[in-house]
Design goal:
322 residues; alpha/beta; Spore Coat Polysaccharide Biosynthesis Protein SpsA, Chain A; 2 domains; four-stranded mixed β-sheet; globular
């Protein structure tokens, strides 16, 4: 629990960027209003919704809620940045309109940032829920609370994106800039920038938020797999290009591309070969060739071999359970 005087020291901005979110926006808003930490503002930034989103938001009579409507649809990431511009809090939480916070989220996350000024980002394990808010899975990386150095956090991030919802210091956005709307993995890019800037990252083992899975929230559903993988690679290159060439973190290149992209390319390549989709085959091979040149073959093989063994073990494990 937070020490008694913590709530007198912080002011939190919870921002909900939304576009056509009338199915879930009520759950999201109420999850914020039901927080154990009461000193916050709730910003709802509407991206030109055409459904009942704004009518639902208007039902709430709470002075902590501020509503903004964009003059035009800015796109998802640009609307995240709009939220940051409008937020007044010392700490900022960006909450997707279809996700929810567990009641202790603001209390737990703010604890880490208040008690250690070097912590720039706090996150936790989280539940995956369905359309009816039924808990499907718990996504958890560690059995204990951890405060990582920036380097330790980046090593973890190179293996994927364990972070779904965060609380971040406002000063970080002032120092490092906002989300990059030009890359698919703009969230991962931001977490990496924070870690590489030397901020500590706090992780809490107890879940503090829920990520909703439904038919309209998958980026891949709107982008061809080829283009999606190319976009992921663009984001990875951007992050590593910001790291000094002689840094030992550069050795994480093959781990990043193998975990993020290569398995998907191989799976899609096999599918395309079976279906005879020669245009897709060429795109997959060209992307794989570009990745190998960037990583270096001598670096690529060991990491890829480990990944392949993991995939084979996972596949046989599933087969044995059938």
């Amino acid at each position: 629990m937070i020490v008694d005087n913590v709530s007198n020291k912080v002011f939190i901005s919870v921002c909900i960027p939304v576009y056509n979110g009338d199915n879930y926006i009520r759950d999201s808003i109420e999850s914020v209003l039901n927080q154990t930490e009461k000193k916050f503002e709730l910003l709802v930034v509407d991206n030109c919704s055409t459904d009942q989103t704004l009518n639902i938001v208007a039902e709430y009579d709470d002075p902590r809620i501020r509503v903004f409507v964009n003059k035009r649809n800015l796109g998802a990431d640009a609307n995240f940045n709009r939220c940051i511009e409008l937020a007044k809090g010392e700490f900022i939480v960006l909450l997707s309109h279809d996700d929810v916070l567990i009641p202790t989220a603001l209390e737990v996350f703010s604890k880490a940032l208040v008690l250690d000024s070097e912590v720039g980002l706090a996150y936790s394990s989280y539940y995956i829920i369905d359309e009816r808010s039924k808990k499907l899975h718990l996504i958890s990386k560690d059995a204990e609370d951890i405060v990582m150095t920036g380097k330790e956090a980046f090593i973890r991030l190179a293996k994927g994106n364990p972070i779904q919802c965060t609380m971040i210091r406002r000063e970080i956005y002032v120092r490092l800039g906002s989300w990059d709307p030009n890359i698919i993995i703009s969230d991962w890019d931001m977490w990496c920038r924070i870690a590489l800037a030397g901020y500590k990252v706090a992780y809490f083992k107890d879940p503090q938020n829920c990520y909703r899975v439904h038919s309209k929230n998958s980026t891949k559903s709107f982008i061809r797999i080829n283009e999606f993988n190319s976009g992921i690679f663009k984001g990875i290159r951007k992050v590593f290009d910001a790291i000094p060439v002689n840094s030992d973190l550069q050795k994480l290149r093959p781990i990043a591309v193998n975990e993020w992209i290569v398995a998907s390319i191989i799976k899609h390549l096999i599918f395309s070969l079976v279906r005879g989709k020669w245009t897709d085959i060429k795109k997959d091979i060209d992307l794989f060739t570009e990745i190998v040149r960037w990583v270096g073959m001598y670096r690529m093989i060991p990491s890829f071999s480990i990944l392949l063994l993991k995939r084979i073990r996972r596949w046989f494990g599933k087969r044995l359970l059938v």
